[in-house]
């Protein structure tokens, strides 16, 4: 069994860490900062391999830089656009990426890309430098930040794909995937895995093709012909994804997902869904009847903010639904969210005001 990060450190060392934080003026979340420092010290005590130390050090440094890039825009909704670096400017896919980025930017969204050429440059051009953020990767043959991102100085460069992928996903409340190669498919399948397993909160995912394109339809056929019959995915796992060649439909999917649903939080075994508009008694009863198969017991009901939410001052102004959700069916939560967004009481679609509250 592996030792804990603090198992080889005595009390004098941990006291010294706390004193160091005090001297440095660290007050907010000092316990978490201390944990980072103690973990680093523990790796030294554990005689960790030098390469492993270099990986851990570089990853932490890259994350700090990326957190700093995103921090000023914490209250602004973001959508990440994935696609090939090899797509040329004359390609209809390039125009589609620029158009969806421009449409969302006009509605107050920021566009996050990998900062490279091709689809990433198209999205940055469509959004404009004031609405673009880039997370690039350092490669021997490509890629340098595209001119739009570089000009605005809103880019951070990463050595590792795993830290880059974290930042391309972490803050976004919507995703658009344009046809691409291994990298694009890798990013898409990670998104789907995070959604299917409940490791990420539900978000809209759009697979956008050029007008008349069939790239993503091929993926649907592969799922229908091989993945679903073999039982490795559920028949409705792709229901959460919109496959379209329409920029207007893609925009509506991203913005419409946040029409009424705001955020969620687990309080123990109970799930709280925060809404933008108060549902009627009849609407709540109908939701409970339609989605009883997703519950471990009881019914969906309205609730005031729970005690832990009040302690954290967590979205207290929002109407709430409370339910005993079956965690084994977390991949189906998006069905309930779409039903909430379709309620007659739901307001028109507007950009979300801030990132998810995570519980």
Could you give the topology of this structure?
Blueprint: H1 11-24, H2 30-45, H3 50-70, E1 78-82, H4 92-106, E2 110-113, H5 119-127, E3 132-137, H6 147-152, E4 155-158, H7 161-170, E5 175-177, H8 182-197, E6 205-208, H9 215-227, E7 241-244, H10 247-256, E8 261-267, E9 270-275, H11 281-290, E10 295-302, H12 307-311, E11 320-325, H13 333-341
Parallel strand pairs: 1-2, 1-5, 2-3, 3-4, 5-6, 6-7
Antiparallel strand pairs: 8-9, 9-11, 10-11
Task: Give a short synopsis of this structure.
The chain is an alpha/beta fold. The protein has helices spanning 11-24, 30-45, 50-70, 92-106, 119-127, 147-152, 161-170, 182-197, 215-227, 247-256, 281-290, 307-311, 333-341; strands at residues 78-82, 110-113, 132-137, 155-158, 175-177, 205-208, 241-244, 261-267, 270-275, 295-302, 320-325.
Descriptive report:
The protein is of the alpha/beta class. The protein folds into three domains: 61 residues; 183 residues, Rossmann fold; 81 residues. The chain is 43% helix and 16% strand. The protein is built from 13 helices and eleven strands. It has a seven-stranded parallel sheet with strand order 4-3-2-1-5-6-7, with helices on both faces. Helix 4 links the parallel strand 1 and strand 2. The longest helix has 21 residues. It is globular. The two termini are 29 Å apart. The N terminus and C terminus are likely disordered.
